[in-house]
């Protein structure tokens, strides 16, 4: 029987596949520590849960408008003005079943088969898969620790051409935790403004998990407002991953295209979950900041541990809840059982099978020498994981 060649050629999500493998190993009785989680380890704040329960009792159990409940779209527009300095009408806001769907809606709405999209690496695992499904030409721009895994104006200038239709920028970044300052964004804007055919997806899902540097929205630069699609949601900042709610704020023509597409796919997002999101936006940021401060404490302690491991290079993240250490020093070594480690996938395999520690290979994020370590876990578990990582790496030999 024939099946879709596009789907057959697409890789499964590395993060989801690894999480499933960790569950299977634990079910088999192995004491595996997994630092793979891409979601806060906190429960959704109580006031948000209560709002959703009340919504159920009030009859919010029917089909919602495709683009989202009017009151939620209005509140998102208010939030964007208050927190991000962005002026969008509610009609320019589209609520979807998670920011992942928001991204896919935008990609399908602005690209035609064969259009070029530029993605800086490291990148979130699903960007390239979505572009593959859209039959776009993907151009990867590598970054490294010397630039804090951020795109430089010169690099962008060299890469852009009249054929480029879409650029991805993510701040804070998954997987590196890097953030762009206003000055850094301004220098990129100066390059982008010369390419009027170019849309920019600004992925800001981790905006509330920013430690020292203030988050800056790309659409706050007036000269780009009509070409930036801001993607955000409730999963990371409000610990609402299972609620599956994301949104875009976009030029009206792009918003209209996304609404049309979504109407033929999932239709509107979960109605009572949207009422919970409404409560989240109206409830202030106290709970959000409490979680952010906990992540900062974990970051600081783990940075001390990671920095002390010989041969490991690591950057202090500006935001999100990930480290992205460079483990190139350990490639080419041998395990205690004599296996040769020739690439980062084999190093990750050694860690999970012999050290009983799961981290995500950097290959999933477009790099060949790194792993992603999530610190969305209790501190006790994180410190045990650091013990295993340090011990496991120390046992490798040339």
Structure report:
With 398 residues, the protein is of the alpha/beta class. The chain folds into two domains: 147 residues, Aspartate Aminotransferase, domain 1, CATH 3.90.1150.10; 239 residues, Aspartate Aminotransferase, domain 2, CATH 3.40.640.10. It is built from 13 helices and twelve strands. A seven-stranded mixed beta sheet has the order 2-8-7-6-5-3-4, with helices on both faces. The chain has a three-stranded antiparallel beta sheet with strand order 9-12-11. The chain is globular.
Share of residues in strands = 5-15%
- Rounded to the nearest angstrom, the radius of gyration is 21 Å
Strand order of the largest sheet: 2-8-7-6-5-3-4
> Number of domains in the coordinates?
2
Pattern of helices and strands: HHEHHEHEHEHEHEEEHHHEHEEEH
Q: Uncertain segments of ≥5 residues (pLDDT<50)?
A: none
> How many helices does DSSP assign?
13
Kindly report how far apart the N and C termini lie: 48 Å
CATH fold type of the largest domain: Aspartate Aminotransferase, domain 2
- Gross morphology is globular
Largest sheet: 7 strands, mixed
The average pLDDT value, as a whole number, equals 96
Instruction: Determine and state the CATH class of the largest domain.
Output: Alpha Beta
> What class, by secondary structure content?
alpha/beta
What is the annotated CATH architecture of the largest domain? 3-Layer(aba) Sandwich
């Amino acid at each position: 029987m024939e099946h879709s060649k596009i789907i057959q050629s697409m890789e499964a999500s590395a993060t989801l596949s690894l999480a499933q493998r960790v569950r299977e190993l634990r079910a088999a009785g192995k004491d595996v520590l997994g630092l793979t989680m891409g979601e806060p380890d906190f429960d959704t704040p109580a006031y948000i849960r209560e709002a959703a329960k009340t919504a159920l009792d009030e009859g919010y159990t029917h089909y919602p408008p495709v683009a989202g409940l009017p009151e939620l779209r209005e509140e998102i527009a208010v939030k964007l003005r208050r927190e991000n300095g962005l002026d969008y009408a509610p009609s320019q806001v589209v609520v979807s079943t998670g920011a992942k769907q928001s991204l896919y809606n935008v990609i399908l709405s602005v690209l035609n088969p064969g259009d070029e999209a530029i993605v800086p690496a490291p990148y979130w695992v699903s960007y390239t898969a979505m572009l593959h499904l859209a039959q776009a030409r993907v151009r990867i721009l590598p970054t490294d620790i010397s630039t804090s895994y951020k795109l430089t104006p010169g690099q962008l200038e060299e890469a852009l051409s009249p054929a480029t239709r879409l650029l991805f920028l993510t701040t804070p970044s998954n997987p590196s935790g890097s953030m762009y300052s206003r000055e850094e964004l301004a220098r990129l804007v100066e390059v982008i403004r010369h390419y009027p055919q170019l849309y920019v997806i600004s992925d800001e899902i981790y905006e509330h998990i920013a430690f020292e540097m203030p988050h800056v929205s790309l659409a706050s630069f007036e000269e780009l407002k009509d070409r930036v699609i801001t993607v955000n949601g409730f999963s990371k900042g409000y610990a609402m991953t299972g609620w599956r709610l994301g949104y875009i704020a976009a030029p009206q023509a792009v918003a209209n295209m996304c609404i049309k597409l979504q109407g033929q796919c999932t239709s509107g997002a979960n109605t009572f979950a949207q009422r919970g999101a409404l409560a989240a936006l109206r409830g202030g940021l106290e709970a959000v900041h409490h979680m952010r401060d906990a992540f900062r404490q974990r970051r600081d302690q783990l940075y001390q541990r990671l920095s002390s491991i010989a041969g490991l290079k690591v950057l202090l993240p500006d935001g999100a809840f990930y480290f992205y250490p460079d483990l190139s020093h350990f490639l080419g070594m041998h395990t205690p059982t004599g296996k040769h480690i020739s690439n980062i996938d084999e190093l990750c395999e050694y860690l999970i099978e012999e050290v009983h520690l799961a981290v995500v290979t950097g290959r999933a994020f477009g790099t060949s020498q790194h792993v992603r370590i999530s610190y969305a876990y209790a501190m006790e578990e994180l410190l045990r994981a650091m013990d295993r990582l340090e011990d496991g790496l120390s046992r490798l030999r040339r």
